[in-house]
Amino acid sequence: MSSSPAVSGAEAVVEMRGVDVVRGQSHLLRGVDWTITPEQRWVVLGPNGAGKTTLLQLAGALMHPTRGEVQLLGETMGAVDVFELRPRIGLTSAALAQRIEPGERTGDVVLSAGYAIVGRARERYDIHDLTRAALLMQQWGVQSIAHRAFGTLSEGERKRVQIARALMPDPELLLLDEPGAGLDLAGREDLVSRLTDLASYLYAPAQVLVTHHVEEIPPGYTHALLLREGAVVASGPLSQVVTAEALSETFGLPLALERTDGRYTARRRT
Ligand SMILES: Nc1ncnc2c1ncn2[C@@H]1O[C@H](COP(=O)(O)OP(=O)(O)OP(=O)(O)O)[C@@H](O)[C@H]1O
């Protein structure tokens, strides 16, 4: 993997302007403006119920805004066939993982992503598909379990398989909704180091990582968006946005923040 991020100045992959998402009396998102360019790697932080998954569903072309404009990969939501757009966006989430049959062969979970299906049906895969799937499984450390049923994997293995699957169609945008959830310390550190590698890869897609924990921010991530009650508290370059003050406001309690070797830790300020 090359160590320099892609060239900047390209067209935005995500452009949101004045976005509201309203369900009944609830404002899930309010007045969100967000621009992501191809070389950027974003972390989205916020407490439970802040609207992070809703924001990712908008960015994944899985939802339309109630008000405002969402442009994805140069196309305006509402004026584009979302079924053409979705294969250009890689997404991992707990909801998607639940749709994978426990008996599905792990190698097929990755391979079948090129056809936007879960599980291998009667598709014919060419040598490029097979080579790419093998390479991704190697990169994500799951090649030795390719023959195993997905339902027999550990949580960490499942998370890595899902990311390999999301990368299979060579997406222009990768959205990771809480990939660190449920991992033990070693699993989390392994994930952070693999995401750090991916962040620095020249040809990697733009990336968005949703998390509750600053400890999961991979070094090499460039930007952050902090959400609270559906509204953006702060957004911009990581080092300017991830501060004790902004995090305290986002999570609603006084926090002390430390940064060592590009990694963050946070704790309650006493
Ligand atoms: N269809 C809906 N109707 C009403 N409220 C909804 C609906 N979908 C989600 N919500 C609410 O919107 C808020 C934001 O939900 P969302 O899942 O986006 O938050 P989140 O930041 O991802 O939360 P978590 O960190 O707990 O996963 C929550 O309070 C949720 O209960």
From TrEMBL:
Database matches in PANTHER family: SKFA PEPTIDE EXPORT ATP-BINDING PROTEIN SKFE
Highest taxon listed in the record's lineage: Bacteria
Xref: SMART domains: AAA (SM00382)
Signal peptide: none
GO terms for MF: ATP binding; ATP hydrolysis activity
Residue ranges of every copy of the ABC transporter domain listed in the record: 14-254
UniProt keyword list: ATP-binding, Nucleotide-binding
Source species of the chain: Geodermatophilus aquaeductus
Record's protein name: Iron complex transport system ATP-binding protein
InterPro entries found in the cross-reference section: AAA+_ATPase, ABC_transporter-like_ATP-bd, P-loop_NTPase
